[in-house]
Amino acid sequence: MLSYHELLKIVGPKRDKVAEMNAKLAIVRSSLAEKRKRLREVEEKIEALERMYREKVELEASLLKQISDCMVKLDRAGKIISGLEGEKTRWTSTVERLEKEYGLLIGNSLVGAGMVAYSGAFTAQFRTEMESEWREKIKELQIDFYDNVSMKGLLEDPVRTKMWTAATLPNDNLSIENAIIMFKSRRWPLMIDP
Question: Quick check: 150 and 114 in contact, CB under 8 A?
């Protein structure tokens, strides 16, 4: 009993100390659990913020790419517009020329059609005189036409003429006019071709 008492004197305070330490340990563990819970919440917030940051960086890269694409498109559009300004000038002058030609269409057509229909059998000099007389008569009738309008000037296709001359057609006015009459007539033309 005595040894138990002696041992109890030594062990008793240590048991109390262990109980006290276990109580402190329980408090520390509950505090640790709470701190870990807060740490997890903070880590989740950090992870969410990092995810949001990556999304924003990707969005920024996408927007920068769109901006560069838009700048390239704007540059190209500017080049097209500046190129079309020249076309606008050309089209404006073409429209003005065509409006002027539209007013001269009747007189020019009279000379061209008359020469195709009636001049095939005549010589080059007589054709020139006939065109001149027709122009004077058309002028008396107050019909507008190009100054010095001629069948060759109206109906000649320079590319086709080059093909004819390359195929050994003589390059004089009479031969070219005869070829024009041949290709523009609906029926067999009456002509004398040297």
Answer: no
The pLDDT score that the predictor gives to residue 189 is: 76
Distance between CA atoms of residues 91 and 85, nearest Å:
10
Tokens linked to 184: 């523009």
Give me the domain span that covers residue 108: 104-184
Measured distance CA(83)–CA(153) in Å, rounded: 32
From residue 186, alpha-carbon distances to 100, 141, 159 in Å are 29, 28, 22
Q: Residue 76: what pLDDT?
A: 92
Buried b (16+ CB within 10 A) or exposed e, 153-175: ebbeeeeebeebeeeeeeeeebb
From CA 107, how far away is CA 139, in angstroms rounded? 9
pTM of the model: 0.51
Residue 142 domain-assigned (yes or no) = yes
Domain count, the chain: 1
Encode pLDDT of 176-186 as tens digits: 888 888 888 88
